[in-house]
Amino acid sequence: MKAIWNGQIIAESDDTIVVENNHYFPLESVEAGFLTSSSTHTTCPWKGVASYYTLQVDDKSNVDAAWYYPDPKPAAHEIKGRVAFWKGVQVTS
């Protein structure tokens, strides 16, 4: 699977986990140079507290377009250390 935004491959891996129709990529498969930490947090009742990254590609920003669960609840333990995308990021095989 590939996550693409603004013409760049943000992440690429054959080892994604699908939860609620979102592909969670291993953190090591994500191009860290495209990620900027965000202060945004949201809460999912069964996954826990999510943190976000803003994507920075060629002078363009996609605010909070990637999220992860640094300490997921037990029901979502398999997504620890993984990142998912939205807000126009194309995830394709």
Description:
With 93 residues, this protein is mainly β. It has a single domain, classed as Domain of unknown function (DUF427) (Metal Binding Protein, Guanine Nucleotide Exchange Factor, Chain A, Beta Complex). It contains no helices and nine strands. The protein has strands spanning 2-5, 8-12, 17-19, 22-26, 35-44, 48-57, 60-68, 82-85, 90-92. Strands 3-4-8-7-6-5 form a six-stranded antiparallel beta sheet, with no helix packed on it. A hairpin with a 3-residue loop joins β5 and β6 (48-57).
Q: How can the largest sheet be summarized?
A: 6 strands, antiparallel
Helix share of residues? under 10%
**Overall pLDDT score:** 98
Structural class of the secondary elements?
mainly beta
Segments where pLDDT lies below 50 for 5+ residues? none
Radius of gyration: 12 Å
- Strand order in the sheet with the most strands: 3-4-8-7-6-5
Instruction: Estimate the global geometry from the Cα principal axes.
Output: globular
For the record, the CATH architecture stands as Beta Complex
Distance between the termini: 4 Å
Work out the helix count: 0
Number of domains: 1
Q: In sequence order, what are the helices and strands, one letter per element? A: EEEEEEEEE
CATH topology: Metal Binding Protein, Guanine Nucleotide Exchange Factor, Chain A
Please provide the count of β strands: 9
